[in-house]
Amino acid sequence: MATAKWIVTISSAHPITEVERELRSQGFVVEQVLEAVGSIIGLADPSLVDALRSLRGVEAVEPDLPFDVGPPDAPVS
Questions:
Q1: For labelling alongside 31, which of 61, 62, 64, 69 has CA 20 to 30 A away?
Q2: 37: domain CATH number?
């Protein structure tokens, strides 16, 4: 099963621990729980994303895209 990294944004109206439990039950592999910002980062097959988005307390499920700021003197590309 192919997996991708996702950032799940949690509604402030729902306890993050409950949403984390529901994500895990759907096959989401939790890597980090960022309680202070209401996000959970983890791995899931892209085919699960629609089901994850429909869970109570989930505001958004977005891909965790890599970025590189480069050194301070690097040319802008």
A1: 69
A2: 3.30.70.80
Which two tokens mark 66? 């890599």
C-beta atoms surrounding 49 within 10 Å? 17
Give the H/E segment covering residue 20. Answer: helix 16-25
The pLDDT assigned to 58 comes to 98
Tens digit of pLDDT for each residue in 13-34?
999 999 999 999 999 999 999 9
Q: How far is the CA of 15 from the CAs of 25, 44, 58, 70, in angstroms?
A: 16, 21, 11, 37
Report long-range pairs for 64-67 (Cβ below 8 Å, ≥24 apart): 64/4, 64/5, 64/6, 64/7
Contact 42, 29 (CB under 8 A): yes
